[in-house]
Amino acid sequence: MAKIAFIGLGNMGGPMAANLAKAQHHVTAFDLSDAAVQAAVEKGAHKAASAAEAVKGAEIVVTMLPAGKHVRGVYESDVLPNVAKGTLLIDCSTIDVDSARHVAGLAQKAGLDMVDAPVSGGVGGATAGTLTFMVGGGDAAFAKARPILEKMGKNIVHAGASGNGQAAKICNNMILGVSMIAVGEAFMLAKRLGLDAQKLFDVASTSSGQCWALTNYCPVPGPVPASPANRDYQAGFTAAMMLKDLMLAQQAANAAGASTPLGAEAAQLFNMFVNNGHAAKDFSGIVKMIDGK
Ligand code: NAD
């Protein structure tokens, strides 16, 4: 049993903290929202009055926060000044690569092991404990983090040095954003050509157009019964989240001098979709905008 401080108990952090408590770890939880802390306490965590209080005496600190500025703020003000030597730091938030490497550098200066460990799998995966973790950090830090991550996920990938977990996450999601638009365009072209959606699916899913956005998450109703298209695009993964990740990819591409014209176009199209009032819809709903609706 480890003493774990968990900071950020939202849609993802709440169920992740619950899984650590279920695995008999001693979880001390903090969030700016009292309701989120209360929900974590009901799932077996112990309440802390502040982030600083939560991390005092912890052997492991897990953060699951919205963006880079929150992670920098919590690390600089609360975590680093208050943790004991030997504490392992795990940031599971999806943030920009620069912020991830910045806080990892601060941790290293303080003599602390740290990994960035963003996730995929959504709230369903967080609840079921089946998340994929993409982990950046040294070998020793990864080895220490692994058994903890295994209580929250089932696929744990060491992506390399600090920041590489974030890099893997945004590269993957850039593929997803671009491929969802490509699949949506193909279905809307098929519609106008009089080609039935199921027929296109039967061909493309067994041909060279095959991809995850098509076969697991088809953006039109029918071919894949579990996809959000069959429930009016009620979100599994919101358009706002996809836009966030595409913007992080663009920020990283600009900083690194990488050419990502399709990633840039996808970011623009999702920006338009979100600004048209669809931030909370599933990202696959962008097919409606492509359809001109
Ligand atoms: P969320 O908004 O539901 O939760 C974030 C929580 O952080 C909130 O409860 C908020 O009160 C808390 N918080 C903010 N600043 C804080 C601070 N200074 N101290 C303590 N608590 C603070 O977001 P989420 O959906 O849980 O996502 C968290 C992270 O996981 C994000 O980086 C997101 O991009 C990533 N992510 C989300 C999903 C998803 O499907 N929701 C999937 C993969 C990755």
Could you write a compact summary of the structure shown?
Helices cover 52% and strands 14% of the residues. It is of the alpha/beta class.
Describe the structure.
- This protein is an alpha/beta fold.
- It has two domains: 3-161, Rossmann fold (3-Layer(aba) Sandwich), CATH 3.40.50.720; 167-290, N-(1-d-carboxylethyl)-l-norvaline Dehydrogenase, domain 2, CATH 1.10.1040.10.
- Helix content is 52%, strand content 14%.
- The protein contains 13 helices and nine strands.
- The strands form two sheets. It has a six-stranded parallel sheet, with helices on both faces.
- Helix 1 (13-22) runs parallel beside helix 2, helix 1 (13-22) packs parallel to helix 6 (122-128) and helix 4 (68-82) packs parallel to helix 5.
- The chain is elongated, with a radius of gyration of 20 Å.
- The N and C termini lie far apart (53 Å).
- The site of nicotinamide-adenine-dinucleotide has 28 residues, from helix 4, strand 7, helix 6 and helix 11.
